[in-house]
Design a protein that fits this description.
The chain has 378 residues and is α+β, with helices and mostly antiparallel strands. 24% of the residues lie in helices and 36% in strands.
Length: 378
Amino acid sequence: MNSGTLPERKTISILLGVAALGATLLVGCSDTKPAGPPAMGPMPVTVLEVQPQRVSSSIEVMAQTEGARETEVRARVGGILVKRLYQEGETVKAGQALFQIDRSSYEIALAEAKAKADQTSREMNRLKSLIEAKAISQKEYDDTASANAIAQAALRQAELNLSWTTVTAPVSGTTGRAAKSEGNLITVGSDSLLTSIYQSNPIWVRFSLGDSDLAKLAGGRVSSKNISGVELILANGTLYPKPGKLNFLAGNIDTTLGTQALRAEFDNNDNQLLPGQFVRIRLLTGVRDGVFLVPQSAVVQSEQGPLLMLAGEGDKVTPRPVQAGEWRGTDWVILGGLKAGDKVIVDNLMKLRPGAPVAPHPPVVPGAAPAAQQAPKA
């Protein structure tokens, strides 16, 4: 019995000893300060080593497209609209039938006018032989001839009225929404509009230049000497492939808006542009040498003006005030503040602090595999 309990007592003594040692170690550790977070290494950043370039200077403004000719299609005679003869939004040719107005009353009017014209014509021919024989007075014959001329004119008007019941396209172009539906009563005047036709080739683009834009031009005004080209930028940021030209320049400044109205013209034979689209117009105003292009996202706007963050000496963050020009696609034209070889940081800008160390690396080429993956396998 006693020999069976001895191992148990030894085991308990060992456990108590281990527990006491653990408690001693815990007490000793409680006197030391807690370990801080591991030291952070330099922030990895993408840098772009810039070089001076030759770029065209330009002015970009918002603009809106419009048809080169926007023609209203109106009814010339009144009546019930019985049929629409075109598909809304389709392209039509000049002279193509678009609407049909009820013809019945105009057919009757034409028949009456023709009968009247035939009667006056016969009467004039009958009196013509009598006037030659001096059997009637000259006044009687003249009155008959005048009545015949009036009847013939009324016949011509009745023929026109009947032809106008078929409303045709005055020009070629793209049709708009029909303003009247079948069964509507059409009246001549302010209520005669049936639809509109837009000629979109060439297409026109309307825009305006404010005082700040005009100040960038020589002499403070637009002329053939200071505008070398016109480009159009689509809503998705891509450049329209066909160059344009200015075809209108207002000779005055809008007193309400303080802007000068202009209009450009672009070839649109593939109908890529539609009237009413919002786009951007770029006026090419010359060429600048020794400027730099940096991504728009790399420019930081501060109270002192635009800044760029550089990976400076010792790969430390160095803020650099710059003089920014206009946008050029996705880049910003930098006119001053940079020199050849400067390393502009283009990402992680919100995490950077002046003087903080960084680990710069060049931009990743789209589609290229990382360097570690490109290394050949052993």
